[in-house]
Design a protein that fits this description.
The protein is 28% helix and 10% strand. With 373 residues, it is α/β, with parallel strands linked by helices. The radius of gyration is 18 Å and the shape is globular.
């Protein structure tokens, strides 16, 4: 994952969080097994140089590297919001690697900080394995848990074929027909309450490794996925991949999103950005608004931003793998006070390694403590 783009890397493929992986207990088992969460390797293919582009783009020739653009220091207001109290509306799933560590280490001097600042916060639950027989029950276990508490769960669908362009987070469904059927079963677990769906990180921003025909087929499948999810639960809010402010220019990203159906209210509620990355909230707000303006579609379309590790912004050297000096960002909330910004979410669980301070996707307490203290 490079600080400039956004690609998933890890055990299943995603970026930190609770990951509800199948353990083979059958579709009648509603309790999701939480194991290593996928690690997003946010590295985009090197963008083609364009003299008319004003947004920063990755200068790296590597298809997975993302360069970080310098960003200003946060304002006093931003600093205050970064330590805001946990939202009363978002759901914290009771199983995750960080919670496992907190429960197992009551005497560790770091435990109180990690518990209060990370483990007690609501975070996304990833579904990154292709297990059609059990996906409905495992999604339902999360959404019903949120409904029972009157809170909104965040779930990540991460099963698109060819994900991560064959990189460390490769995997997913064997083909698009199988993916379409998997999404049908995923949607069947959404229930009838409010739920936020992060639909396939990197599937759009990192699509240039595909041929034109393959990209068109993927985008058609994503558009269908959005419609299927919203048809199954009209209260579901579905967000499409916008990369982040250090990757593609807003106009280019909007064009890709439009091809994938993100401008249609029948399939989309807007876009998500900064998943598993470090770009400052203010930069993502500005970028997402430019993307939405260029995207068109109904005025109701908005954006959600991953703020889990962006408290100090992206490293100036472009380092993406567990870079030093990063901090927790704004607390998860669906009340941002910003026009067209629907939420700040923790899609990447702070403390789950990108692969440098620990094994990819595993919780690393020293890293978590550095982020939280």
């Amino acid at each position: 994952m490079v600080a400039a783009a956004s690609v998933v890397v890890a055990v299943g493929t995603a970026t930190g969080m609770m990951s509800a992986l199948d353990d083979g207990r059958g579709s009648d088992e509603a309790r999701p097994e939480v194991t290593d969460s996928p690690t997003l390797d946010l590295r985009p293919p090197a963008p083609s140089p364009s003299p008319s582009v004003t947004e920063s783009a990755s200068p790296s020739a590597s298809p997975k590297k993302k360069a970080a653009s310098p960003t200003p220091s946060p304002t006093k207001t931003e600093k205050k919001q970064e330590t805001a109290a946990v939202s009363t509306r978002l759901y914290r799933h009771p199983e995750s690697q960080v919670l496992d560590w907190v429960r197992a280490n009551p005497g560790d001097a770091r435990q109180d900080v990690i518990r209060s600042r990370i483990a007690d916060q609501p975070a996304a639950v990833w579904f990154a394995d292709y297990t059609p027989a059990t996906i409905t029950a495992r999604v339902r276990a999360v959404t019903s848990g949120g409904a029972a508490q009157g809170r909104v769960p965040v779930v990540v669908a991460y099963g698109i074929p060819g994900r991560d362009c064959g990189g460390a987070s490769e995997g997913g469904a064997p083909d698009l027909d199988a993916y379409d059927a998997w999404i049908d079963r995923f949607a069947a677990g959404l229930g009838s309450g409010e739920v936020v769906v992060i639909l396939e990180p990197d599937s759009i921003a990192q699509s240039e490794c595909l041929s034109a025909a393959q990209r068109a087929d993927r985008f058609a499948s994503l558009a269908r996925a959005g419609r299927t999810l919203k048809d199954a639960n009209p209260k579901a809010r579905v967000y499409f991949d916008a990369g982040h402010s250090g990757w593609h220019p807003a106009a280019k990203q909007a064009d890709l999103l439009r091809q994938a159906g993100a401008a249609s209210a029948a399939s989309s509620d807007g876009v998500f950005s900064n998943v598993s990355n470090f770009h400052r909230t203010a930069d993502e707000i500005a970028y997402d608004r430019r993307v939405l303006d260029a995207l068109g579609g109904p005025a109701s379309l908005g954006a959600v931003i991953d703020t889990s590790r962006n408290g100090n912004g992206a490293p100036p050297d472009g380092e993406w793998c567990d870079p030093d000096g990063r901090k927790l960002g704004r607390a998860p909330t669906l009340n941002t006070g910003e026009a067209r910004i629907d939420g700040y979410l923790w899609v990447k669980l702070p403390g789950e390694s990108d692969g440098c301070k620990g094994s990819p996707g595993t919780f690393t307490p020293s890293y978590a403590y550095d982020l939280a203290r």
